[in-house]
Design brief:
single chain, Arc Repressor Mutant, subunit A, Beta-Lactamase, elongated, 2 domains, 8-stranded antiparallel beta sheet
C-alpha cells in the first residue's frame, strides 16, 4: 500500500515538474532545455554557445537570459549559465548524481522531479530542512526505490518560490 501511495505521489511530482518546464514561453523553454542538457553533462554553457545552439544572435540570447534571470529560471556566473530547470553545477543542499556526474538541484522538488521526468537512475543526498539530517534517495529508471519512511516534501507558497531558486 505504501509503495503504491509513494508511486502515485511521484507521478504527481513528475507531472508538476514537467508542467513547470512546459509553461515557459517557447524561446525560454528552448534556452532552458539547451542549458539543462549541457549542465547534465557537467558543463556550464556560455551565452555564445547557447546562442549558437539556438541559432540566435548573441545579443538576443543575452536579452532572453536577462529575462529568465529576473524570473529565477536560470542562474549565471560571469558569462556562463550555472543553473537551469532546477539543475545546477553550483553546490546546494541538494546533491544529485546522474550518469556518474555530480550535480546539484535548487530545491527538494527538483531532486525528485528531475530523475522522475528523465526516467533515469539517480542518487540523491539532500538535507532535511527541519532537522538538518542528510536524506539519501535512490531512483532507478525514474522510479524512487530507496527512501526514508516516511518521506515528506514541503513546498513553498508559489509567491515565495522565486526567492528559493538557485539553491536553498
Amino acid at each position: 500500500m505504501l509503495n503504491r501511495v509513494i508511486l502515485n505521489e511521484m507521478n504527481e511530482i513528475k507531472t508538476a515538474w514537467e508542467r513547470y518546464i512546459a509553461e515557459l514561453p517557447p524561446d525560454q523553454n528552448a534556452l532552458n532545455r539547451a542549458a539543462f542538457h549541457l549542465l547534465r553533462q557537467g558543463q556550464a554553457p556560455s551565452v555564445s554557445q547557447l546562442a549558437e545552439i539556438l541559432d540566435l544572435p548573441e545579443a538576443q540570447c543575452r536579452s532572453l537570459i536577462k529575462v529568465m534571470l529576473a524570473i529565477g529560471s536560470v542562474t549565471i556566473d560571469d558569462d556562463r549559465i550555472t543553473g537551469a530547470g532546477g539543475l545546477s553545477i553550483v553546490p546546494t543542499f541538494h546533491q544529485i548524481t546522474l550518469a556518474d556526474i555530480q550535480l546539484y538541484c535548487w530545491c527538494a522538488l527538483d531532486t525528485l522531479g528531475i530523475p522522475a521526468a528523465l526516467a533515469e537512475d539517480a542518487d540523491i543526498t539532500s538535507e532535511d530542512g527541519q532537522s538538518g539530517n542528510k536524506l539519501r534517495l535512490r531512483f532507478e529508471a525514474g522510479r524512487l526505490v530507496d527512501f526514508p519512511n516516511p518521506l515528506r516534501l514541503q513546498l513553498a507558497p508559489p509567491d515565495q518560490t522565486r526567492l528559493l531558486c538557485g539553491g536553498t
